[in-house]
């Protein structure tokens, strides 16, 4: 019976056995497998506690090569939806997130506050300054996780009063980005649901994305925290700081956050 040769890297798909989708490329799998095997051999020859640790690390690396799946890459890398966003926009990679918060204020009031971009640095922690040039153009200066601040010119691409605002960065941006903020009537007359959907191209690609996540600067956390501060600002007129929270607790005043 004739046998069909299988090209390198196209053998058994172990992701079917593990239940994980492969996220390690062919060349990287070969390197991981070979390096892992060498570490296992070196660990076994060395013996002792150090040798055991070396062998276990090698086994994990070899498993990465055999299975084509890396949990660290899965946690820190781009999700399938983000890869589709990057492909659609022509970016190298994309970090995207959608978050929402319910604010006990009328839609008209929340929209009006947000539409004046000069108000945004008041609750967006990483935004240092926004220079509003006209109804559709503005210049943003944003603190980056590493290095100096990044800047870009933004264009409002769609503005539907009391419904939504969409924007994108213009040519020459330090960080390309796009997004939409929706203002919806919350069920049960509870005010306004603000839903923010944001995507940007990490400056250093996947490495920059991974470092930002490790330092707690990834977009999901940023969006969550910013929307929470927006809620506090509109409902109470202030954003509690750690000092104010400590003072409230010592005086017996309930935390309004």
UniProtKB/TrEMBL annotation:
Region (Disordered): 238-257
InterPro entries: COQ10_START, ORF3, START-like_dom_sf, YgaP-like_TM
Residue ranges occupied by any Coenzyme Q-binding protein COQ10 START domain in the UniProt entry: 103-221
Domain Inner membrane protein YgaP-like transmembrane: 22-81
Cited Pfam families: Polyketide_cyc, YgaP-like_TM
Superkingdom per UniProt: Bacteria
Family: Belongs to the ribosome association toxin RatA family.
PANTHER family: POLYKETIDE CYCLASE/DEHYDRASE AND LIPID TRANSPORT SUPERFAMILY PROTEIN (PTHR33824), POLYKETIDE CYCLASE_DEHYDRASE AND LIPID TRANSPORT SUPERFAMILY PROTEIN (PTHR33824:SF7)
UniProt name for this protein: SRPBCC family protein
Organism: Roseomonas elaeocarpi
Origin organism lineage: Bacteria, Pseudomonadati, Pseudomonadota, Alphaproteobacteria, Acetobacterales
